[in-house]
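Pilot study result, target chain (261 residues):
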Amino acid sequence: MQNPDMIRLSFFISVLVLCALWEWVAPRKQLTQKKLSRWLNNLGLVGFNSLCITLLMPWVAIESAIWANQSGVGLLNWLSLPSWVEIAIVVVLLDLTIYLQHLLFHRVPFLWRLHRMHHADQDIDVTTGARFHPIEILLSMWIKIAAVVALGASPMAVLVFEIVLNASAMFNHSNAKLSLPADRLLRRAVVTPDMHRVHHSVISKETHSNFGFFLSIWDRWFGTYRAQPELGHDKVRIGIPLFRNAREQWLDKMLTQPFRK
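Predicted structure:
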């Protein structure tokens, strides 16, 4: 396999640029904050998180998949399946894992204090899809490693999943307009921007709904699906009641939000 880090980075940059262009050509909602400042701080956080992973994680998901395959550990290493079937199974089951993890980060108070930094963004656009606290990123990585080893996922399947996860997160956080027929059709299978925007509403019952990142079926199956925001997409207020000051969108403030009331 070629360098997986370069492959992931190439897809990340490509999807980021495409979604940014889509937002520019067909914006869904008028932004309330200065875009340049938000982008600098949100993308600065992405760089800081990458540094934390490099310095603090002895393994990441790809390395854990290589070890599991070499050691014969995990469910899929005990089965003989075509590679495309294995990739499909890994993508679906890891996406379910991310859904359950997301639900947990909303339900457990300490984890919510970490995750609420993602929700404290007062606008939602493509950069919000990568705005997570570094402690949450590290915890998420260990959860993903445990799931990868338990499944015995191949390195290629993990790489495909990580590309799909990152791309879908940027897609469904995009401040971009889909036609209503296209949205209705797409959200039968995947999470669309209109579906996920409900999750970023300041209204609590909407904040704690629509937890899916890629597949939309989990919210429907587990009863966490909410079709539309109460006030409509044009009037829905984005964020959480805390941290409404514009200064809270700076990197230093974002990093300390979990430790402040």
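One observation from the pilot: The chain is about 60% helix and 0% strand. A full batch analysis is planned for the follow-on phase.
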